[in-house]
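Limitations

Structures in this collection are predictions, not experimental determinations, and the ligand pose is part of the prediction. Treat each record accordingly. The example that follows, with S-adenosylmethionine as the small molecule, is included so readers can see exactly what is and is not provided: the inputs are given verbatim, and the output is the predicted complex.
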Amino acid sequence: MRCIEFLAEDAPVFLDAHNACILLKARQKELASVEVSLDLGLSTQSVDFSEWDCDAQELDKIVKKPNSAYIIRDGTANEIAIRNSIEYRLRPTEKGQAPALVIDEELMHQIAPLGPMEYARRRAELAVNPGWRVLDIGTGLGYSAIASLDRDAHEVVSIEKHPEVIELSRMNPWSQRLHEDERVSIVIGDAFEVVSTLRVDSFDSVFHDPPQIQLTPKLYSTKMYRLIGQVLVPDGQLCHYVGPEGFSYRGQEVAKLVENRLRGNGFHSIEFIPKLQSILATYGDK
Ligand SMILES: C[S@@+](CC[C@H](N)C(=O)[O-])C[C@H]1O[C@@H](n2cnc3c(N)ncnc32)[C@H](O)[C@@H]1O
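Predicted complex:
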């Protein structure tokens, strides 16, 4: 039996190693049905093998690659990845947690002990209030943007350098609200240039969520922080991913380096939160 592409009308089937393993074992035991997730852990459902089934070889292929996620197309399991000069892919995380983004083998999300979406929610609880306008630098899979929507943000402007990442997010069941909610606008471009074109004082909160400093030093520069300050209203909030506690770059602790640069560019009440690997700061006069 080949993989059947759609479980129900318009609902594509996604699988990771954990769920492929459940399906394989259930088939080996000749069960009539099994409880499984066909959307990368977003929900679970009972699959009746008389209505849906999947080739054991395809399932086996998925089980052997626990760091990849798959979509079933034309009866075969296809890795959710885009490869040109750079490789972009979804990486499953713990059971029932959102997948992470991997760019050229660099993990773009904090994944333990919570999942990437849960971390985004915790950050948004600290940095977004209802009715706020949010600037989201580094869209990625849109988890910060979605967490801002859950906090009743009025609008979210989200900047992403790589169109491939946005394409990947369209394939991720956990990212769908990024594309469906009218409050979100996605701008493709280098944040360093795009932020300088935005209106002064136009955001209440900024998520600055760049890759680690050694990959994008420009996004941790004094000039970047000046640009972010310009678009924030007085008392506006910044939530900035800086990496784990003690993480250093060129002999300097990154959290300290960022703190000093922010202080020099009009930010105050700067606090490093190790559990969230992030700095929170307020813009303007104290
Ligand atoms: C840590 S991930 C962001 C995760 C995202 N906030 C989320 O919630 O899923 C960093 C993102 O920044 C993007 N990026 C890297 N350099 C950039 C730049 N100069 N301008 C805008 N985005 C950039 C990467 O492609 C990647 O998607």
